[in-house]
Structure prediction request, 324 residues.
Amino acid sequence: MKILVVGGAGYIGSHMAKTLVGAGVSVVVLDDFSTGYRQAVRYGDLVEGSFADRALLDKLFTDHQFDAVMHFASFIQVGESVRDPAPYYRNNVANTQVLLDAMLAHGIKRFVFSSTAAIFGEPTRIPIDESLPSAPINPYGRSKWMVEQILADYESAYGLESVCLRYFNAAGADPEGELGERHDPETHLIPLVLQAASGRRQAISVFGTDYDTPDGTCIRDYIHVNDLSAAHLLAVKRLLAGQGSGRYNLGNGGGFSVNEVIETARQVTGRPIEVRFEPRRDGDPARLVADSRKAREELGWTPMFADLKTIIANAWAWEQNYPW
Ligand code: UDP
Prediction:
């Protein structure tokens, strides 16, 4: 099996490349390093460039016979997408269409897409299963939902089969310590909390304490990056086995508030973590918790690192060694 990992120098894409190579899959990573890191490309062959570059894609798809394409190269910051939506629609939607059209021109008809819980917006029920209507409340979520809709139309019209994986909150790091999370600027809760624990940052800001949740802070479903990678591998196997397209919500089914994450990080690290309470961040829903029964049943997916302490412990090991 040969797979193109678009965005393989990023957080989730780099873990994916490791999982694929470990499973005996041949991997080519395509990344322009606009947000990814060279040091993160430890598995697979690297092609440097943009997935919006049609000439580059034509060459890549002529040189290699890919069985499928996995796409991790999206912009991901909710708050930034509210302040400046243009790059979100350009990169996440328009550029993704360039990639899909190039795939079709070369007869590649299997695609695994990194979607997000943000397509559900402020959910009307928890936990969120796949039957809940999509109603994103920020440009980031809308950009991902637009691609899901494009994929449905491309399947009807052109026979492109896809699996859309709606990640809840990706977290943790490679348990072997080779890879981990790095964003610049970092905006995600767990790495920021751990930076406050290690002393790289003075304090963690808690965005909003007046949400309709037991302690007033937002509740999220944190899912280990290796469990996400495992789901992608199962998804691509599903496509290659001819079992057809699918859409799956990926989380552990347990929600933790921002305050609970900070308290767990204090326990795992044994360090004090200073907190500053601040106003709400734009575009944040109060609660996002997944019902992943469909992924368990149809993909045979079982999260291996479901415990929040394990997720934080892996991320903490990465934060302490932080080789890049
Ligand atoms: N959050 C926070 N302080 C931070 C970063 C995040 O309180 O410095 C909150 C954020 O408002 C959200 C939760 O932590 O409620 C998870 O945010 P993150 O950016 O990690 O992921 P998202 O849910 O936006 O995908």
